[in-house]
């Protein structure tokens, strides 16, 4: 997968970019464990094709199956630093789009 990111705008106006790869690995791990298959198979035969065909699936998985704490260490702030803000609400409800950096 190309270096794509899920960009999210937080309530304080800051924007963060989370690597789609992090989201893909999270999903692939989940289905590998549930389906009893290896991570590579889950990633390459299911998650990556799904994410490539539908950017909505990236956002849907991230919002409904991950928390800000799951992605915070991978996120790159690309607008307005504000270190004391609670980003959980923004992760769940903020505007999102797929971008390339």
Through-space gap between termini: 13 Å
Please tally the helical runs, counting DSSP H or I stretches of 4 or more residues. 5
SSE pattern, N- to C-terminal: EEHHHHEHE
Beta fraction: 15-25%
Q: What does the largest sheet look like?
A: 4 strands, antiparallel
Question: Mind explaining what this structure looks like?
Answer:
The chain has 101 residues and is of the alpha+beta class. The chain contains five helices and four strands, in the order E-E-H-H-H-H-E-H-E. The chain has helices at residues 20-35, 39-53, 55-65, 68-71, 88-93, and strands at residues 4-9, 15-19, 76-79, 96-100. Strands 3-2-1-4 form a four-stranded antiparallel β-sheet. Strand 1 and strand 2 (15-19) form a beta hairpin. The protein starts with a strand and ends with a strand. The model has no long low-confidence stretch (mean pLDDT 90).
